[in-house]
Design brief:
CATH class of the largest domain: Alpha Beta
Distance between the termini: 42 Å
Number of strands: 10
Helix content: 25-40%
CATH architecture of the largest domain: 3-Layer(aba) Sandwich
Order of helices and strands: HEHEHEEEHEEEHEHEHHHH
Largest sheet: 8 strands, mixed
Radius of gyration: 22 Å
Number of helices: 10
CATH superfamily of the largest domain: Vaccinia Virus protein VP39
Oligomer: single chain
Structural class: alpha/beta
């Protein structure tokens, strides 16, 4: 706790206001926020069966980050299976599991983790409702394959009687004035006035160095990605669980939507970050990119960013090929 107080002072994070829920380190049905430091299987054992409405997480990808030891791929799937089995146990019959994954990379070859984890979920009787593609536009640049710019969210339900609030996540119509041009409804507006279904490809900026939510975590969720899942798949006051919590994004998304949030994180420095961020969110001081904001507005970009320097040089030198060779491509 002493190190936490020191960390808060350095970052000038305010303490909880008197009306905010307390942050508990152990699970109880009476709590609203549970931030557990340790193995997620320990937290899961403390949660009663059929008590969680939504499990949403992004597990380690077995690529050797500081919070994971790289292991044989079959062993990785078995370890994931143990956690997934416990998540299914604590899930309500009307609940959902959203498992966000990327690619395992072995000597330059990729293995899509969602494809090798799918049999684990289906073997436990879960139904796949969507394979959501999360598309983003920034990341490492590859030179021997296309640069990776997406990850996947497998959305499973425990039964056919599941919570889904489509109206909560509708997005603006592309052509709101469009009308039926024939048939019995000719001349009437053809669009849903509340907006359209967002579909299964979501373009949401990932958290890189210039993102307002950026922390020291190397693989951080954007709040709006989880918030969309929370409001669509839960009701107010429901429990939302993240077994691999990281910097607390899932709890933040849950609290912002009037839900309860619980999660486990094994690394103490990320627990400290998560605690600070949750406190700041409860006090209304956490910077968060609002859900639904356009990804890019060229009016807000500087003129120097919108005009390619090699094209400007071409206008004066007439040698585009030589100019392009002056720019290196990173792996």
């Amino acid at each position: 706790m002493k190190s936490m107080n020191r960390h808060r002072k350095q970052r000038d994070i305010p303490v909880l206001n008197s009306h905010a829920p307390r942050l508990s380190s152990v699970y109880s049905p009476d709590e609203r926020v549970v931030l557990f430091q340790g193995d997620c299987r320990t937290l899961l054992r403390a949660i009663p069966s059929a008590s969680v409405q939504l499990v949403v997480t992004s597990p380690p990808y077995n690529i050797g980050k500081e919070y994971e030891a790289r292991i044989d791929l079959d062993e990785y799937v078995r370890a994931q299976g143990h956690v997934i089995g416990e998540c299914v146990r604590v899930l309500k019959n009307s609940g959902s599991i959203c498992w966000e994954t990327g690619n395992y990379v072995d000597k330059g070859a990729i293995v899509p983790l969602d494809s090798i984890l799918y049999p684990v979920f289906s073997g436990l009787g879960l139904r796949l409702r969507n394979r959501i593609i999360w598309h983003f536009e920034h990341g490492l640049h590859c030179s021997r394959r296309m640069s990776g710019r997406y990850e996947t969210i497998l959305w499973f339900t425990k039964s056919d009687d599941y919570v889904f609030h489509l109206d909560e996540i509708r997005v603006p119509q592309k052509y709101p004035g469009k009308k039926f041009f024939k048939g019995p409804r000719a001349g009437q507006y053809s669009c849903n006035p509340l907006g359209k279904n967002p579909g299964d490809v979501w373009t949401i900026p990932n958290v890189k160095s210039n993102h307002v939510e950026k922390t020291d975590h190397p693989c951080q969720f954007p709040v709006e990605l989880i918030e969309r899942l929370v409001v669509a798949l839960t009701d107010p006051d429901d429990w939302v669980l993240d077994p691999f919590l990281g910097t607390g994004t899932t709890i933040i998304a849950a609290l912002r939507s009037g839900r309860r949030g619980a999660g486990a994180e094994i690394m103490s420095k990320y627990v400290d970050l998560a605690r600070d961020r949750v406190i700041a969110s409860l006090n209304g001081t956490l910077p968060v990119r609002p859900m639904g904001r356009p990804v890019f507005d060229p009016k807000n970009a500087g003129k120097g960013l919108l005009s390619a320097p090699w094209l400007r040089q071409k206008e004066t030198s007439g040698n585009l090929l030589q100019t392009c060779e002056d720019y290196s491509v990173a792996e």
